[in-house]
Amino acid sequence: MSIQQIDNTYVAHTYARFPVELQSGKGSLVWDVNGKAYIDLGSGIAVNGFGISDDDWLNAVTEQLHRLPHASNLYYTEPCAKLAEMLCTRTGMKKVFFGNSGAEANECLIKAARKYAAEKHGPDCYTIVTLTNSFHGRTLTTLSATGQDHYHELYQPLTPGFAHIAPGDMDGLRALAAQTKIAAVLIECVQGEGGVVPLDRDFVAALSDFCHEKDILLAVDEVQTGNGRSGQLYAYMCFGLKPDIVSTAKGLGGGLPIGACLLGEKLRDVFAPGDHGSTFGGNPVSCAGGVSILSRMDDALLAGVRERSKYIFDQLTGAPGVEGVSGLGLMIGIKTTKPAREVVAKCIENGVLCLTAKDRVRLLPALNIPMELLEKAVAVLKEACA
Ligand SMILES: *Cc1c(COP(=O)(O)O)cnc(C)c1O
């Protein structure tokens, strides 16, 4: 059997895979088993922030792999402490909990918000408000947080304690707050899986004011938008927010599994020993990767993200077959006249890997993709859209 046949036979059918078997990669180039090269505009879904096997990252994680690949969380290790320090210094947040994925980062966020609200406002203050069309993960609780009914249908009963309002619906939030005690509001500044849709700035500002006024925790899911993707270190910075709690994952480890929940001043001491944990969370190898990534995410790198973003917007806006371009930084959605999956298939044929989100083509290139590769890939994409 071919690898594709073995996979189809033995791997659970949770993914609609494209018929491509990838074998190796470097930077923004990736090769399949037949030696065909592709320009990568997906970065493993916003994971390989500095491209595939970036040299500094590779050195950092291999060194750590040889020195100490795993230790339990009963002992101190340098990469975990260093990465937490960097995250707090760069954001003003106070403490970090490490897990292994975006869903786990959000699980921690939800537990922290519930514990804080129960202790501060009483046991009936547990409702977390999220937005329709949001995406917060695949565990049962983060699925319950996700404001898309079609993910819920076959998994009843869901975790109680979540309510959803439409993006922009401040009246809906006020009406809800009049009936129900709200512990937290959780948003993605740009809805990623929901079609790469940035939230309206006035709505975000009104939401933030409302939360501060009512002592409701403001929580931001930066799993996809974080770690330079938006053109700022975290997308909430583009919106001038001061969140109480932030989750992040995907790009943080530069290619290895990691998730982090950043706790602000109010939640600094919400957890005591035994309240939460993870066997692999904060493991030295993923954290060494994170330190390598975060230490190079400086102003010049972020300016490069904004510059590449502008290039893509300029090239695609109004191009034949393109009905609209949305997003922020290097997280871009393209509404195409042709079905998005057809455009992506055409790109693959012509040596470019990109993604879809809802009815859109989604681009999440490496933050440092060389301009000449980006130009080539955008030309292929334009041709596929036309
Ligand atoms: C991908 C994603 C998640 C889930 O992350 P996993 O690592 O797949 O668990 C959660 N929230 C957002 C916004 C995401 O994009």
Ligands, ions, cofactors:
pyridoxal-5'-phosphate
User: What is the helical fraction, as a range of percent?
Assistant: 25-40%
Strand content range: 15-25%
Overall average residue pLDDT: 98
Question: How many strand units?
Answer: 17
Describe, in plain words, how this protein is organized in 3D.
By secondary structure, the protein is of the alpha/beta class. It folds into 2 domains: about 5-55 and about 300-385, Aspartate Aminotransferase, domain 1; about 70-295, Type I PLP-dependent aspartate aminotransferase-like (Major domain) (Aspartate Aminotransferase, domain 2). It is about 40% helix and about 20% strand. The chain has helices at about 5-10, 45, 55-65, 80-90, 100-120, 140-145, 170-180, 200-215, 235-240, 285-295, 300-315, 340-350, 370-385; strands at about 20-25, 30, 35-40, 95-100, 125-130, 160-165, 180-185, 190, 195-200, 215-220, 245-250, 260-265, 320-330, 330-335, 350-355, 355, 360-365. The strands form 4 sheets. The chain has a 7-stranded mixed sheet, sandwiched between helices. The structure holds pyridoxal-5'-phosphate (PLP). Pyridoxal-5'-phosphate binds near residues 136, 192, 223 and 224.
